[in-house]
Design goal:
Layout (H helix, E strand, L loop, with lengths): L6 E4 L10 E8 L10 E4 L5 E3 L5 E5 L8 E4 L6 E3 L9 E5 L19 H13 L3 H4 L1 E3 L5 E6 L4 E6 L3 E5 L4 E14 L9 E14 L6 H9 L3 H10 L7 E5 L2 E3 L5 E6 L2 E6 L18 H16 L3 E5 L3 E7 L3 E4 L5 E2 L4 E4 H4 L13
Parallel strand pairs: 2-8
Antiparallel strand pairs: 1-8, 2-5, 3-4, 3-6, 6-7, 9-12, 10-11, 11-13, 12-13, 13-14, 15-16, 15-19, 17-18, 18-21, 19-20, 20-23, 21-22
Length: about 375
């Protein structure tokens, strides 16, 4: 893969810039000339702007978002500014033109599935099969590249151009810049019954196209019981008020016994924890039990602890579960958590896909 390098320069101004204002200039790197009409947006929000004849843009936000600033311009490589709020003055972004690339064609015989079959499987898995997901339409499906790896039973999807998605149920037009999507199966098939898991990553920009308040009902229904709702609940520790309940290995559990929430750098830090009193020390020997037997009991206890199943029940009806990796993650004020790879959801929340996404600035 060709490496693309970007240059980000800070322009210092005499006047101060508001901490919640993102501004700057977008230029062509080679010619050092302003680019008019570049699209600039905060990933995962409805907040965006276009550059003027001077290449200038400005986005005013009511609060800080833990997301990247994305710059797109036709014929140029996408530019990402990580932690854009760290810059207290306008930034100058130098865009590099895309080199003409010829796609490599590999002739290895006909694949096991047709493009139509792969596209259908991708559409259902990526958008989801909820009411919101089924209402979505990808306008430019012809830009989607699909490949099925028969050795790993994996469907790969990507797109050189952002996917243009119309969500009729939630009344959002979504620009989804899909970097990668993989759908794994347990055998050589596209049947969702044998689907092992899926993963997709990219950046998104939302445009609100609602004309009245009737869509609010649909958006609220999508929000309640979602991962975004759960993360806000964990951060605020108001499980009962938000109608969430935690179960560990099938038994009702107090979130305080398993989720330690602390403040750090304007975020909520969540650490998985386990009450020490629930684990008997090795130096306590029960009557009739040898030290070797006690050691075995403790090993089994630790093994069970490492394989705890965490279930989430919302409003006594929507059941989900999650698994964790390291046991530590962070939540911002908008209910966005990171790293994304830390938690894997199943059940109701696992069924919510791109068609059920709400922008981070949704209220």
């Amino acid at each position: 893969m060709k490496l693309v390098y970007f240059v980000l320069c800070i322009l210092f101004c005499a006047s101060g810039v508001h901490s919640q204002t993102l501004s700057g200039y977008v230029y062509d790197e080679e010619e050092n000339l302003p680019l008019q009409g570049a699209f600039v947006y905060l990933d995962g929000t409805t907040l965006s702007a276009s550059t003027d004849s001077l290449g200038y843009f400005k986005i005013i936000t009511k609060q800080k978002f833990n997301t990247d600033l994305i710059v797109r311009y036709i014929g140029y490589s996408t530019f990402k500014v990580t932690n854009p709020y760290q810059y207290t003055a306008p930034v100058k972004i130098l865009m590099r033109q895309n080199a003409l690339e010829l796609k490599e064609v590999v002739i290895n015989g006909k694949g096991p599935f047709t493009r139509k079959q792969m596209l259908k499987a991708f559409r259902e898995s990526f958008l989801g099969k909820t009411r919101a997901g089924k209402s979505c339409e990808i306008i430019n499906e012809e830009d989607i590249e699909l490949y099925y790896d028969s050795k790993t039973f994996t469907l790969h999807a990507s797109s050189l151009k952002p996917l243009q998605i119309k969500n009729q149920y939630l009344k959002y037009n979504i620009m989804f810049d899909l970097d990668e999507c993989t759908i794994q199966y347990r055998r050589k098939t596209l049947d969702e019954v044998y689907q092992k898991g899926m993963y997709f990553v990219g950046t998104t920009s939302f445009t609100d196209v609602s004309e009245n308040t009737s869509v609010d009902k649909h958006r609220r229904k999508t929000y309640y019981g979602s991962t975004q709702h759960l993360m806000k609940t964990i951060a605020s520790n108001d499980w009962k008020e938000q109608k969430f309940a935690l179960y560990v290995n099938g038994a009702p559990a107090s979130p305080h016994n398993y989720l330690k929430v602390t403040d750090t750098l304007g975020l909520k830090k969540v650490e998985m924890q386990f009450k020490s009193e629930n684990i008997k020390p090795l130096n306590v020997r029960l009557s009739g039990i040898s030290e070797e037997q006690m050691q075995k009991i403790q090993e089994e206890s630790q093994k069970k602890r490492d394989n705890l199943r965490f279930d989430i029940l919302y409003d006594d009806k929507d059941q989900s579960y999650f698994k964790y990796n390291t046991g530590t993650f962070y939540i911002d004020s908008n209910g966005q958590y990171f790293p994304i790879s830390e938690l894997q959801f199943g059940g109701y929340m696992g069924d919510l896909k791109a068609g059920d996404m709400l922008p981070a600035d949704y209220r």
